[in-house]
Design a protein that fits this description.
alpha+beta; Heat Shock Protein 90; 2 domains; five-stranded mixed β-sheet; four-stranded antiparallel β-sheet; 11 strands
Length: 384
């Protein structure tokens, strides 16, 4: 899956999962509060029933001629009776009576007015611990529902996301197929042109090269670069790398000579500064791809009579141009495949993607510093 597909899939999943879980959380909260209220109401009903039982007992005690009165005492409930002035008379718990008494988080309290006043009782107060076990089981049920929903909607969201990015994948696959077909068709004519140009330059040095011939040479080299990039993309996953010691200084000099004819079309001056010779363990073709793409872009997006400064040091390779630069907003996606910050210069938008792949493979680091309309500097660091 390409980076653009991954980003689209992640964005879809974030939006989908966030909205889904917010709605499901609201529904779960409503379910929890409603179920908890049902548990409390059931306990309140039992307290109300017990209150009516105690009222009957008080009436019997009031009408009884017994010398000793026994106030009901149960393990499940605590009760107390109060007179008309809210004074405590008797019971198995004692708490200040208040008409605004509500149920706390741990206790349920029920208050009932007693009429007529049996044994001087005006108010009756009953208390019972809140059924924490039932509430805890309810909480576990809600958490289990949330976890199950998260797993279900994650799996569903992933498959929906794949369907969401399917059109993009299909378009990219068609483009890749087109690139593959194009590279196959370009191979023979480009090789033929470049071979014949080299033969003419080698075996017929006496020929006076015209501007037309130079243009053919430049166009052929440009096509060759495009072909090499497209071939690299096509074979990247199956590409066999031969890691050897590569003299980067010597390779740079060769590639600068190769690009001199192309640079002359814009009168771009290339300055090569070798601070220290460097030998890297790298596949030679990978090194060529990185240098060629950075140099090609530095020329392509440069100004007429501009300049390119190439600096090679023991820790890094830097290519700085005086070109059109890159806008700050474009720096975030400029390395993505088929993305171009400037469409006026043509190209497929694969150069920096290839550079990024190579840099990533060898655990190098690519730094990009650019100011719009002033130029850009690309630095590859290997000593990190």
């Amino acid at each position: 899956m390409l980076q653009s597909e991954k980003k689209s899939l992640v964005r879809f999943l974030v939006i989908y999962m966030t909205s889904t879980m917010v709605l499901f959380s609201i529904a779960s909260w409503i379910f929890y509060t409603s179920s908890k209220q049902n548990i409390i109401e059931k306990q309140q009903q039992s307290l109300k029933y017990e209150a009516s039982h105690l009222f009957s007992t008080l009436r019997q005690l009031h009408q009884s001629n017994a010398q000793v009165l026994y106030y009901p005492n149960t393990k499940d409930y605590k009760s107390a009776i109060y007179d008309l002035n809210h004074r405590y008379i008797f019971g198995n718990f004692k708490t200040p009576i208040n008409y605004d008494t509500n149920s706390s988080n741990k206790m349920l309290i029920y208050k009932q007015k007693v009429e007529p006043y049996y044994l001087g009782t005006a108010y009756m107060l009953l208390s019972q611990p809140l059924n924490q076990k039932a509430i805890y089981e309810l909480q576990q049920k809600v958490v289990l529902m949330m976890v199950t929903a998260l797993m279900f909607f994650s799996i569903l969201g992933y498959f929906l996301g794949r369907l969401f990015v399917a059109p993009m994948r299909e378009s990219i696959e068609k483009m890749n197929q087109f690139i593959q077909d194009t590279t196959h068709e370009l191979n023979t004519p480009i090789s033929t042109i470049l071979t014949n140009i080299e033969m003419i330059e080698t075996f017929h040095p006496e020929i006076n090269y015209t501007d037309e011939f130079k243009r053919i040479e430049i166009a052929s080299k440009t096509l060759s670069l495009i072909y090499d990039d497209l071939s690299y993309l096509k074979l990247n996953h199956n590409y066999h790398r031969e890691i050897v010691n590569v003299d980067i200084e010597e390779l740079l000099k060769q590639r600068v000579i190769y690009f001199e004819s192309i640079a002359k079309t814009k009168e771009v001056d290339i300055e090569l500064v070798i601070k220290e010779s460097v030998t890297l363990k790298i596949d030679r073709n990978d090194a060529i791809r990185v240098i060629d793409n950075l140099l090609s872009n530095a020329i392509k997006y440069n100004k007429i009579k501009g300049s390119i400064i190439i600096v090679l040091d023991k820790d890094y390779l830097s290519i700085k141009d005086s070109g059109i630069g890159i806008k700050k907003d474009d720096l975030n996606f400029i390395q993505q495949r088929f993305q171009r910050a400037n469409s006026s210069e043509g190209g497929f938008g694969v150069g920096l993607d290839i550079v990024g792949q190579v840099v990533s493979y060898y655990n190098f680091k690519l730094d990009i510093i650019s100011t719009y309309n002033q130029g850009s500097q690309f630095t590859i660091r290997w000593d990190i």
